[in-house]
Amino acid sequence: MQRAHLFEFNDLPWLPAPIRKTIREFLHHMSVKLRMYDAAFDLLAELLRQRGLTSIQALCAGDGGLMVALSRNLAREDVRIQLSDKYPALELYQEAARASGGRLGHVPESVDVLDVPTHMAGLRLIVNAVHHFQPDQVRGILADAVSKRQPIVFMEPVQREPLSILRFCAATPLLSAWLSLGGIWPPSLRRTLLGAVVPVGAFCFFVDGVVSHLRAYHLDEWRALIEQVDGHDGYDWDLRQVPSFMGTRISFLAGLPSPRLQEGA
User: Does the reported pTM lie above 0.90?
Assistant: First the structure.
């Protein structure tokens, strides 16, 4: 299936704030309540342990809510997660910091994932956002990490496959109804209206999900982009798929500076 870089409603700057908030809430609570990322989070935890890493730079962090779930999954007081985004949601980041018991912080300025400031050292984590970028931009994201000798991890819950798209299409109307009518607590009049009564939010969520699948990258495509990055051979790369909710999968990429080269230097 050919990759199609179509638009998503949540990417549009003119999308009304109530609809955007509904989409983000659906996405976050679906991910957390269905424990979609548990296996990928466990794999990340093992990488942190093996390499002795305690700092995570959560790039393209959106509303930051998923990183609260990651912090709880890691259950480590010594690991700090810093949220950042091109359009940082500062109030939501502050809420996430409180919910995490102080294990989350944030960068108040806009952060360009293609040129992350050198003072933001640590493992770069991008969850459910790589499909928003064109191939040359994905290569740039990888190249920036490699040139600055920073570890990087991608996690993508969507697959560019007919079965994955059909599964999403079948499940999403039921998920949207559940999340609109009490699946997110406390209930919200906005969510009920936009998710069930006049389901504009649910429709946008559905369309964005289908488009996300069509935008997704195969592991071989990530691997080809890695091979175009200068210095990629100085990294240890791990590309795989890990199980998720009801037969779905998370595409996982990890690139870490090779300890053998670090020791030689």
Answer: yes
